[in-house]
Amino acid sequence: MAGMQKNISSDVKNISSDVKKSGENGNGLILYQNYQSYFCLKVVFALHEKKLKFKSHVIDLYRGEQFEPWFVRINPKCEVPVLKDGVKIIPDSRRIIDYIEDNFSNGDTPRLLPEKGSVEFQQMGRMRDLIDNLPIGLVTFGCIFNPQMTGRIRLSNQEIRIRQARFAAHENLLTDLSEKNKEFKDHYLVKKSGLMRLFKLVTDSNEVDKGILDVEYALKEVEKLLVTHEGDKKKWWLCCEKFTTADISLCVLLSRLHQIGLTDIFFKDNKLPHLQEYFKRAQQREAYKKTMNQGDGILNSFVCLDTKEQMFVAVGSVAVILAAAGIATFLIHRNK
Ligand SMILES: N[C@@H](CCC(=O)N[C@@H](CS)C(=O)NCC(=O)O)C(=O)O
């Protein structure tokens, strides 16, 4: 990876020029993120709900930009999202959401929490934990690599192969980097074993099945709670009148389940009707629309390959057609 050779001082310069730019038209928040990332979407959603301005610094996860030394310095786990607020660096979606909630909740900035100590506050904590602890990486890649699981193949075989090859490519890249950058060796090796573990799980349909069952259990718990919203609670969101951080977790989960075809199964025959109604209503929220359409809607669908990969698939398909046509012409002429 050419970008990997960049020296660290040029990366530091990059960050500070970003800070300057964002400071000119916002409050200086920079979000290192990727438009397709589940965890980044939660943070983006929370920022939009709170009407906070921020600047995105997109990290190319497919090409392994998260492993570059400048990024490892920011987050040794090599993961997005990471929020930069002035000199403060905050990794991890939950920590970021809690940080913006604690630090940006004045008059114009809506709170995303019920009153502390209330029954709703406790309920919200329980729901948020339940949803945030779901094995979403396993379920997402599991459904992509085992298309029979959802019954709806969203990617071609070639696209699936490209994504599987990416795991191997990242493992090789991490081996290479751990030899070249002794300073980060341990981080790279931890990351590599995590990736290998995940790949083993996502290619084992029993494990994927278990993950899907966990999700189903959580959705049933949500439905049980939504059923209780009767009378003056009719317009409540998940835990109270306010849209809370638990709603953010739930909406991003539902959006991902929809993309990988699992809502087709969970919502079949009008199952979980209150949850279905909730999701329809949530999709109307301005912040939801902004979140799911960030980057002008280009390539932010999880199932999309990036531009170069799409080009690769397109060129590959044209090459196959031309080769087939060439062989056919050759055979016709030879048989004449
Ligand atoms: N617990 C972290 C998880 C973050 C995470 O897994 N991010 C993924 C993208 S959705 C990532 O950066 N993956 C890159 C990699 O592991 O190489 C959070 O909540 O922010």
UniProtKB/TrEMBL annotation:
InterPro entries: Glutathione-S-Trfase_C_sf (IPR036282), Glutathione_S-Trfase (IPR040079), Glutathione_S-Trfase_N (IPR004045), GST_C (IPR004046), Thioredoxin-like_sf (IPR036249). The keyword Transport does not apply. Pfam families: GST_C_3, GST_N_2. The keyword Transmembrane helix applies. GO terms for biological process: mitochondrial fission; mitochondrial fusion; protein targeting to mitochondrion. This is Ganglioside-induced differentiation-associated protein 1. Keywords: Membrane, Transmembrane, Transmembrane helix. One of its GO terms (cellular component) is mitochondrial outer membrane. SUPFAM superfamilies: GST C-terminal domain-like, Thioredoxin-like. Belongs to the GST superfamily. The chain crosses the membrane at residues 311-332. Residues 27-108 form the GST N-terminal domain. It comes from the Eukaryota.
